[in-house]
Amino acid sequence: MPKAERAFLADCFDAYLDAQGDVPLDRALGLRKWGGVSVARAVALSDRDGLLINIWQGQTEWRSLSPLAAARMMKLSADRYESGRWPRERDQVTAPAAEPAATWWRILQSGVAIPDVRRLQQILTDGGTPPVKGPYNR
Fold it and tell me: 60 CB contacts (<8 Å, ≥6 apart)?
């Protein structure tokens, strides 16, 4: 194990032991925080935002649109997928072969909602949720 990772874990365990049981181990390790967004949720949101940006750039009918226009078209497509195909495909092991259904399946399968038009526009404009920083990618 690299030195930086050992130091990170040692610091977390020290915090856990110093708290004498007042702080759960998962919180001391940084896996769960007081309020806010958990690490797992932040990763899922970042992944979702990356998928949304990729599909915007990859779909020829959306690529040339402004972020607002693309967000509206993408939301219509996602809503159609979620109400039509998703109930039949939610238990499948792999995503559908064709886009955009594959992206909608991946997002919904992760347990994260497809954002509304306003948030979708923000993601397309600003690049979405920043990747989560941790001991492996500081």
Answer: none
